[in-house]
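Appendix C reproduces, verbatim, an entry submitted by the partner laboratory led by Prof. M.T., so that reviewers can inspect both the input and the predicted structure.
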Amino acid sequence: MSELLPGYSPSFKKPAEILRLRRRRSRNEASKPAAACPGLRPFSPGPLRGGGGGSVKRRNPFASLENTGGSPGKRRLEMPLDCGFVPPGSRPPQQEICARSQGETRALPVCQFKSVEDVIWGEPLAAEPAATAIESPEKPFATCEPPGGSVTFPADWSLKTRLLFTSSQTFTWADHLKAQEEAQGLVLHCRATPFSLPQSIQEPKLCTDLRCAFQQSLVYWLHPSLPWLQLFPRIGADRKMAGKNSPWSHDEALQQVLMSEWALGFTSLYNLLKAKLCPYFYVCTYQFTVLFRAAGLAGSDVITAVMSPTTRGLREAMKNEGIEFCLPLVEDESNRKQKNSETNLQASGAADHETGYTSEAEDLADIDEDESFSWLEEMGVQDQIKKPDAISIKLRKEKNEVKLDHRPESVVLVKGTNTFTLLNFLINCKSLVAAAGPQAGLPPTLLSPISFRGATMQTLKARSINVKAQVQSGYKDQFSLEITGPIMPHSLHSLTMLLKSAQKGAFSAGLYTHEPTAVFNTAVHPQTSKETVCTDLVNCSLQPSTLEQLIQLSQLGKSSLRQLDMRDYKYTWKS
């Protein structure tokens, strides 16, 4: 055999034999006395290389610094796990306990801990509900609610695509509405009848008023209405609309008819808004979204329109049409920087006044940009130095403006009579409608809480789900209610009012925002009188408590609500 295989070695052993020998060696080493260093974790890397039996075992190269006896992590793990706090460096030498010892693994105490750090410091687990929502560490929420909770939550002007309510109480009361209850809910919506429910309903499924009010809260109005197309959201919807039938895409006459009907509906909505019969409405294009609000809402005493996201080309076109607007987030940032610079100048100016010098900013304040190069002529080198021309200066300014495009900072705010000019601009703007792609020739989507000319009544989709949630003692029932569709601010508030009564003041809600509209929560100044607003908007078809919420000055900035919780009839939220 060795003649046929020249590389064959008689001492060759199979892998199974080597593993058997290593296991035997490990058992022999485990039976030996412990190492001199009590804090060093034993390990068995196998037979020593290049040395005899009396050589010292080399350090494991893959061991971390915490494997050594003097590391802080090792010292913390050696502290007694008795659910009590022991300050670092003060552990009794006789009570050192290691999670691992030579040849055996010791069980930790039965006491539970919140995290690894709690295991290290011995902090006990507080009593918590069995089912706890775990937030993703990749995108943490910013908590902005008062510590003890609040009886209401701030207005959120962003559009939601989905709401997911969870509760320990069942949502069966929202399923399978009777024909009479559905019809009554639609009539209550059309008549803008306010509903009033008790604080707690013992049998929600048997409460007809609750089920009718639920149907009333799901209604919204849409134009155009094309059942085979999903008309919200419009931004980024090309993939969902691809392959769908669109006979208007290559028919200019049909496109003109659609746009004509859309312009009538748009104008009808603005007239209702101006008369304070409509509180607000949305215009959703394939590139941006516009929110029109009646005077008195969001802390403004005039009609406002918020548009996002925008581009430099769109803003230039609005300027050319004479539309006055502002970039509130950019102005807030510049005002903040100006205040900081003024503070610094005042501090430096006091020192300059003592020495008789003025600051450099004051010296250059009155120098014109064209005259700032006059010193080159005095030195006689004006022909040797290339000065930036007007085109270069303009390109530099345009570069700064382009940086805002498609970002939250590009949000545009239009106030007062300029909103009517914006209306005409949008009706006549050719780039308002896509020229190619699945949305070619399709007018923007109009969303409103009330009816208007050419609108179609639609309802949000509701579905209740019952699941089994795993807890420490086994499983328990977890109930959820899912609402999908273009969810406007008034619908969100009305639904929370219903759930407060039906779920006995305890539920949680996950809010899924249409991200381009999150910036609609940017604050609008100045704030108007609350009493005057409530009187003027009494006929805008909103519930009284919903109207009271929407007239408040926006508090969320360019963020939106992501999580809403109610415990003991008090709200807490995260954005």
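The longest strand covers residues 474-487. Additional entries are available on request from the coordinating office.
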